[in-house]
Amino acid sequence: MADRDLHAEILAALEFQAALGADEAILDAPADRYALAAAGAEQKKREQAAPEPAGHGGGYARPAVPAPAPQPGIDPIAEARALARAAASLDDLQAALAGFERCELKMAARSLVFSDGRPEARVMIVGEAPGRDEDIRGRPFVGRAGQLLDRMFAAIGLSRDAPDAETALYISNILPWRPPQNRDPRPEEIAMMRPFVERHIELAAPDVLVLMGNISCQAMLGRRGITRLRGHWAEVQGRPAIPMFHPAYLLRNPVAKREAWADLLDIRKRLRR
Ligand code: URA
To answer: Does residue 179 have its Cβ closer than 6 Å to ligand 1?
Structure first.
């Protein structure tokens, strides 16, 4: 096979893996799975031939990926609360998050995705967590869902690039680090990040909060069920907050854009009061 064909074939195989969601390196060096399978079969044959050693279960048990064990004497939520409370500005808060070592999502992520847009904006959007594009670029909502979000808010005259607070947006997420393979955040991860999000909202002090999707509603309202919650104004830290369908959901369910449009009009009405 010509070098060029081989290169194209390897690239296509890689793109296929990425499309399936295998878009991260798990080990530092490549593992030859064919060689490992052959070695495993040999090992099994040897074990079947030999008597089981005393005091040992016999056979090869693949070491399970350990669940993060709670560290004795450390209360990550209390630590998060103390750090968040001590932050006197958004820069302080970002620095506090960058130094927070209790959330294992940080270990697997490339970037801390803190915020985008203008902190003075009247509207703050709280999304769920960065995805692959956000992790690469270090900014929230920059992938396909983010492009839809930009178009949705542009339709009511708001944008993250606007120079003035009246027409600007400020955007952040419940989690600042991408969960591996975009898995749902665990309750303990949300609980750990909540003090930072609460302080983020206090410091940005928006007039209106938009809670994008179930994870944001779970974190800020303690409730899920976005189909019932959306469009109903709630209160978060004394501020009006409206749950909306997440733009990623709208990409999969375009008929729900009608409800999203109604919610956008309601936000515009609230801002004009
Ligand atoms: N989805 C989110 O909720 N946040 C992002 O930043 C990107 C996608």
So the answer is: no
109: CB partners within 8 A, 6+ apart: 130, 135, 177, 178
Query: Which CATH class name applies to 76-271?
Result: alpha beta
Given this model, what pLDDT does residue 195 score?
Answer: 98
Residue 63, pLDDT score: 41
Tokens of 9: 């074939």
Ligand 1 site-directed mutation target among 136, 141, 150, 244, most atoms within 8 Å of CB: 141
- Please give the distance, rounded to the nearest whole angstrom, from the Cα atom of residue 138 to the centre of ligand 1: 11
Ligand 1 geometric centre to CA of 265 (Å)? 22
User: Dihedral through CA 203, CA 208, CA 214, CA 218, nearest 10?
Assistant: 50
Instruction: Tell me the three state secondary structure of residue 239.
Output: strand
What is the helix (H) or strand (E) element at residue 170, kind and residue range? strand 169-173
pLDDT of 159 > 60? The answer is yes
Which is nearest to 92 in space by CA: 205, 199, 219?
199
113 Cα–ligand 1 center, Å: 10
Model confidence over 52-72: pLDDT tens digits? Answer: 333 333 333 334 444 466 677
Domain ranges of the chain: 76-271
